[in-house]
Design a protein that fits this description.
This protein has 82 residues and is mainly alpha-helical. The chain has one helix and no strands. The longest helix is centred in the middle third of the chain and has 80 residues. The protein is rod-shaped. 0% of the residues are buried. The mean pLDDT is 93. Keywords: Membrane, Transmembrane, Transmembrane helix.
């Protein structure tokens, strides 16, 4: 009878150890996933900043192109009128 209880206690202790290992493993996975999520968000933010910077450069390029076109039109019309 006592040996059966001892066997049961040993089994329960082993199960408790396995449960603790599984909990630790899952906590480690959660920590890793949270780190990955943070890194992904930082990467997305950096890409968004790059996109905004490129869009600004494109708008400035379009404005300069428009100014050059207007200047060329003015110079051409002055030369034609002379």
């Amino acid at each position: 009878m006592i040996s059966l209880f001892e066997i049961d206690i040993t089994r329960y202790n082993r199960l408790l150890n396995e449960k603790d290992l599984i909990i630790f493993s899952l906590q480690t996975k959660i920590t890793n996933l949270n780190s990955m999520q943070t890194n992904d968000q930082l990467h997305i933010d950096a890409l968004n900043r790059t996109i905004k910077k490129k869009n600004k450069q494109i708008r400035q390029g379009k404005f300069v192109k428009w100014i050059l076109t207007a200047g060329l039109a003015i110079v051409s019309s002055v030369l034609i009128l002379k």
